[in-house]
Amino acid sequence: MKTLPGKELAAAVRAQTQAEAAAGPQPRLAVVVATADEASLWYVRSIAKAAAGVGIACDLVDLGPGAAPDRIGETLARLSADPNVHGVMMQTPLPAGASAQELAGAIDPRKDVDGANPLSLGRLAAGLPAFPPATAAAVMALLDHYEVELEGRRAVVAGRSTVVGKPLAHLLLDRNATVTVCHSRTRDLASVTSTAEVLVAAVGRAGLIGAAHVAPGAVVIDVGTNPTEDGGLTGDIASGEVAAVAGALTPVPGGVGPVTTALLLRHTARAANLP
Amino acid sequence: MKTLPGKELAAAVRAQTQAEAAAGPQPRLAVVVATADEASLWYVRSIAKAAAGVGIACDLVDLGPGAAPDRIGETLARLSADPNVHGVMMQTPLPAGASAQELAGAIDPRKDVDGANPLSLGRLAAGLPAFPPATAAAVMALLDHYEVELEGRRAVVAGRSTVVGKPLAHLLLDRNATVTVCHSRTRDLASVTSTAEVLVAAVGRAGLIGAAHVAPGAVVIDVGTNPTEDGGLTGDIASGEVAAVAGALTPVPGGVGPVTTALLLRHTARAANLP
């Protein structure tokens, strides 16, 4: 079995992004945060650090875990209207009572570098230019980097989130794959996932996908990032047993994750250069 | 095999819509037309007639087959801004060079009664309130009318149009079906469609789906409306041979079609009563 790490691709995307960022006025990403969740704050700081590394300015706009939904929406709208800000991202989780989908409607689609606005998802589905969520884009970038054929092939996406599963289904359809979306209510999950030539797991349940879920030789992309007891990360794929069946598998950590951050920055540099 | 006609359901929807329309100020639907295509004009006139039958005003705004895209977009925006118009629909085909997806962005989502604006599709995908395209809504209404179980079942949609296949995939996912979208580039179509407990054909190719494409007992919904040489309509399903295999099948004509028109009017009445 072939392992498909993301670090080399992420480094290439970052290098290209750095060049794009240096070519014009400095791109600026604003990340709106309204949580005390440690993993979330860690991720946001890692974005800021990666942005600095490629010459992109990154403002953390921390509204605190008690922020009212209206205030979050107003902040997203204000940043969207600010000509000095090129990318706007809203970090989840949000305070209780706030709907990420509704609030993200306040992000200008031209600055929606993490594809959170439902209009971005709709434009993506309709085949119009739009930024996909960085995670969904990272899955496609990895498949392309490793030259995985998609045309006419059977792709199965486990997970139907607005952030990964649904936009990914549209990106795969756009590449002429035959696409199945399965989820927690799917009966006999293994019978569905084992039809996949390309299988993407984006459910958020450690070890959900075992050897019985995977067709021999399948390309398996693991989007899961589940915390382990020792403070590490593990994917949705039971990698030990799946390695004996799959043809190729992305590692966690070091697979989709680094590519996601790199693409978020690429989107920001591109947003800064939109005509 | 059970036949699943749409006329009874359409009549029930029309009766309910007539009551809703009579309860407030008269709803008004504006249909923008920019084609000389006879089938299209026939369909638009049938909408106007059906609207009159349930007490909904219907304006045909005919810009002619040579209308410039800008003029179509401006017309959609003007109608969207008109407080006396509650539903705005853009009939296809459009003149060469006009993008239906881009132009439909000018329709206020609250008046987008045929779900043509990419924002409506994105909101639908994100689980937010939105009008689905009337055809996609008609498929769901027929499945519900005939009490077809969807939870956890395998649904296959043949066709990936923005008008039917894609929104329908989201509507089926939202009902907890496991959903596969296949299309012209799908390899071995029969091997995919024959896994369906619920199969929807929305490709636009007469007789594409034969007996070998259908699992014994499957519920089959035929969205195809292909013109026949004698001036009639035929579906995407080869109904003669499929009838021997399927558990249930919608007829063409008289299946999805009448329900679609009735739901377009229901959406208009609802748009008129949005808070």
From TrEMBL, chains A, B:
GO terms for cellular component: cytosol. Its EC number is 1.5.1.5, 3.5.4.9. Residues 5-114 form the Tetrahydrofolate dehydrogenase/cyclohydrolase catalytic domain. NADP(+) binds at residues 159-161, 225. It comes from the Bacteria. SUPFAM superfamilies: Aminoacid dehydrogenase-like, N-terminal domain, NAD(P)-binding Rossmann-fold domains. Keywords: Amino-acid biosynthesis, Histidine biosynthesis, Hydrolase, Methionine biosynthesis, Multifunctional enzyme, NADP, One-carbon metabolism, Oxidoreductase, Purine biosynthesis. The keyword NADP applies. One of its GO terms (biological process) is L-histidine biosynthetic process. It catalyses: (6R)-5,10-methylene-5,6,7,8-tetrahydrofolate + NADP(+) = (6R)-5,10-methenyltetrahydrofolate + NADPH; (6R)-5,10-methenyltetrahydrofolate + H2O = (6R)-10-formyltetrahydrofolate + H(+). InterPro entries: Aminoacid_DH-like_N_sf, NAD(P)-bd_dom_sf, THF_DH/CycHdrlase, THF_DH/CycHdrlase_cat_dom, THF_DH/CycHdrlase_NAD-bd_dom. CDD domains: NAD_bind_m-THF_DH_Cyclohyd (cd01080). Pathway: One-carbon metabolism; tetrahydrofolate interconversion. One of its GO terms (molecular function) is methylenetetrahydrofolate dehydrogenase (NADP+) activity. It holds the Pfam family THF_DHG_CYH. Residues 133-272 form the Tetrahydrofolate dehydrogenase/cyclohydrolase NAD(P)-binding domain. Homodimer. Catalyzes the oxidation of 5,10-methylenetetrahydrofolate to 5,10-methenyltetrahydrofolate and then the hydrolysis of 5,10-methenyltetrahydrofolate to 10-formyltetrahydrofolate. Belongs to the tetrahydrofolate dehydrogenase/cyclohydrolase family. This is Bifunctional protein FolD. The lineage of its organism: Bacteria, Bacillati, Actinomycetota, Actinomycetes, Streptosporangiales. The gene is folD.
